[in-house]
UniProtKB/TrEMBL annotation:
Protein species of origin: Paraburkholderia megapolitana
InterPro entries reported for this sequence: Acyl_CoA_acyltransferase, GNAT_dom, Ribosomal_N-acetyltransferase
Keyword NADP appears in the UniProt entry: no
UniProt keywords, alphabetically: Transferase
Key word Transferase present: yes
Lineage: superkingdom: Bacteria
Cellular component annotations (GO), alphabetically ordered: cytoplasm
Protein name per its UniProtKB record: Protein N-acetyltransferase, RimJ/RimL family
A Pfam family assignment: Acetyltransf_3
Entry-linked PROSITE patterns: GNAT (PS51186)
Domain N-acetyltransferase: 20-175
GO molecular function, one term: protein-N-terminal-alanine acetyltransferase activity
Amino acid sequence: MRQRTPYPFPEKIVLAGEFVALEPLSAEHLDDLWAAASRSDRSFDHLRYGPFETRASLSQVVQDLSSRDHQPFWAVRDSGTREVNGWLSLCDVYPQDGAIEIGSIWFSALMQRSRASTEAIFLLMRYALDALGYQRLVWRCSARNAASIGAAQRFGFVHEGVWRQAILIKGHQVDLAWFSILAEEWPARRRAIEAWLRKENFSPDGVALTRLSRDAKSELRCDTV
């Protein structure tokens, strides 16, 4: 039986994992974010904002993002180094329809293709689909952003289509690729991601022994690298 609507709106709370913690984004994270962003210009290629020439320009964006009541943002703190190296959000929240999106993801070069980035996204997926009970989780990105498309597929999102020239990013009209996971698909996706994140899946130097992949039936699983 589906939950009665409206679904709860996401709260700005701490979401703790084993490798990272998601903290409500605030000006307190600015020092770490400036250190990370100033070394990661290319990581902003597919976002409306960045790269940032000054700490003040980054501060303005952090102030804007952290003050949005309709779109809660989280900073990603590494549990080992205690440094903050990125942010992400839940956006386009439709409590009446049980639909929600994970988006505005920015990870510095230090986080990309890492166990930390995988867990950060997984924590928000779990919050949206398990804790809040939403029925549809969306991932959208520039159709030119091969890394983001690959990440969506890796997490088990299903491609739905492309909106042509849907948004303007840094002076260019950009096609948007849409992906989603439905509530009934989530338990199998969750188990596969949890299996990948287990400590025993990593060598002593932190290299994953398996990879997340999806078969023709859209089942997500861990395969040997």
